[in-house]
Amino acid sequence: MFVPAAAQAATIDFLGLRNAEVVTLAGVRSVRAWAGEMQWAWLDGKPAGASSDPFYSYCVDLLNNERDPQYDVAIQSTDVLKADGMLDPTQAAAQKAVWLFDTYATAAHESNYGYLAAGLQLAIWEVLYDDGKTVKFDATAGAANRFYVTQASAQALSAAESYLVALNGTANYMTAPSALWLDVASGKGQDQITRTVPEPTTLLLLATGGIGMAVRRRKSSQA
Predict the structure, then answer these.
(1) Cα–Cα dist 26/148, whole Å
(2) Residues 79, 175: contact at Cβ < 8 Å?
(3) pLDDT (average), residues 44-48
(4) What is the number of other CB atoms lying within 10 angstroms of the CB of residue 142?
């Protein structure tokens, strides 16, 4: 797990969308936009702990628009994630978003179905900006709806709802590993979350630990 002690700065180049759909949103922001997986490249060197080029991400910043490229991106841990308009941190919004990303992003990335990534993005926005129960308009909440989808494919909506059902059926989101938060100053781009990778020293320690456990199991069986 990569948790930066201090934020690094980077420049990221937007390469385009891979799996995504156009959706229409309302609540904290009424906008017609792409929802799904975004592709990027590091322009001034890959930061420690970050995935290699190209890398993919999901938006965690509904109130700002993506720019190309995005400069002075602070590389931080999602442990301290707080984007414009997000719910109060005590509501575990960041942890829920990271759990969704960790659980479903790989399958969406490897799929040829854009609605899986679109649904994941909708679910991530829902937990960051609303109560995390549904991406549809909640008639019982009325004016308290802070985020909802007014237009999207039936498949994307179904995927988003299934992700949220799984999230709300588990408490494991509080133990989800941290992801990488690409933090951009308000009005200068759009915050993203992406994967971290263990540093070589961490991988070596993990491998050594695994070998040690194997040796102990072998000795126990021989005894």
Answers:
(1) 6
(2) no
(3) 88
(4) 8
